[in-house]
Amino acid sequence: MNSKFFIILLINIIALVALNFSLSADDREEARPTAIVETDPVVVVEPQTEVESPALAAVKKESANAAAQLAQEKQTNAEKLALLTTQLAALQEDNKRLAAQLNNLDSELLEKEGYISALKKNNRELKRAQEEHSQLLASEADLLKTNIQRQPDLLKTKPPADIVEETEQIDQVVLASEPEGDLSGAVEFGFSYAQDNQVTRAMNGRLILNYAVPDLYTLNSNLKFELEEEDDEMATEKYRWQLQGDYYLDPRNSIFARSDLQRSQFASYDKEDVYTLGYGRIVFALPRHKFNIEIGPGYRMAVPNVGEDAVSADEFIVRGLANYERILSESLQVKMGAVMEVGRENSTYGVTFKAQNKIYRELYLIFNFEYEYTENVPVDTLNQEVTSGLTLMYAF
């Protein structure tokens, strides 16, 4: 029993010693100050210190400055936003104004386009009328001078108006200069020789001159001669000069004065002169064919040859003419005409046919056929006269 008591006492003593040792260790741990670990560079601030450090004050100051700067930037951005809003509103107003101006310009552009289209149409019509007019005014020699299909010589238009630069002090428009006249012509010549029981030589020729002032007037001269000799005796001697002037009222209408002088030593009438005034009209004129007519009063003087039993009467007449020209190909062109001179005492009727073929440049081969019927002729003479022949013509 004493041994049990001794063991229990020993255990209590050991427990008491262990408890005291544990309490002592805790007191030493609480009393020991905080130490800086050499391996860690971070400085540990004692939690008991209540005074602010300089670093914390600097951080707070920088934070305050940043907050003030941020507030100032917000205010600046707000002011910029208000300015941009005002500028945007102004730009929107300008956009509306420019859109309205653009609509007005579009309307004006449409009007000007319509006006330009009308001007182009009028220009085409004017050009076509000028071409037709130029074709109407072209002379017979002009038709022969160049390529018949293109007929550049027929396109005789007015010289263009003088071009004047626009200045602020222009008071009047400089009008186009006066149109210049154009002279053209052609020469025909033919010769034949025949020998059987008798020797026959024949020669004929023609000189055509034409002077034209575009859109104003034309003058045409046609001088023709025919000579024939049989066994050294003259059998035919005929001369004819036709002179005509046309004054154009417009591209299709004109008035004319005409003289036709004929001298023939061996025909029914030795002298026959016809003077005519009248009106002419181009019925149609297209690039490849043309038709025109003339009509007017006149006066005829006819004198028969010596020894011929014929009526010599000077009288008033009415003269009418119809003429048609046709281009068949690039080198071939024909011309047909009918004329009548009706009087109280005597009347004449005639038809003509002419074909011209281009040989080389301005050189042409001409075939002529003429038929004329006279009502009153001397006794033992024929009412009909027929003439035909081939000639060469040079146009210039």
Give a quick precis of the structure:
The chain is an alpha+beta fold. It has 3 helices and 12 strands. Residues 34-50, 137-141 and 143-176 have low confidence and may be disordered.
Structural account:
- This protein has 396 residues and is an alpha+beta fold.
- Helices cover 30% and strands 42% of the residues.
- It contains three helices and twelve strands.
- A twelve-stranded antiparallel barrel has the order 1-2-3-4-5-6-7-8-9-10-11-12.
Characteristic key phrases:
396 residues, rod-shaped, single chain, twelve-stranded antiparallel barrel
User: Roughly how much helix do the residues carry, as a percent range?
Assistant: 25-40%
Low-pLDDT sequence parts: 34-50, 137-141, 143-176
Largest sheet: 12 strands, antiparallel, barrel
| Spatial separation of the terminal alpha carbons | 177 Å
Question: What's the layout of helices and strands?
Answer:
Layout: H1 2-31, H2 54-137, H3 140-145, E1 182-195, E2 199-213, E3 217-230, E4 233-248, E5 253-264, E6 269-285, E7 289-304, E8 314-327, E9 332-343, E10 347-360, E11 363-374, E12 384-395
Antiparallel strand pairs: 1-2, 1-12, 2-3, 3-4, 4-5, 5-6, 6-7, 7-8, 8-9, 9-10, 10-11, 11-12
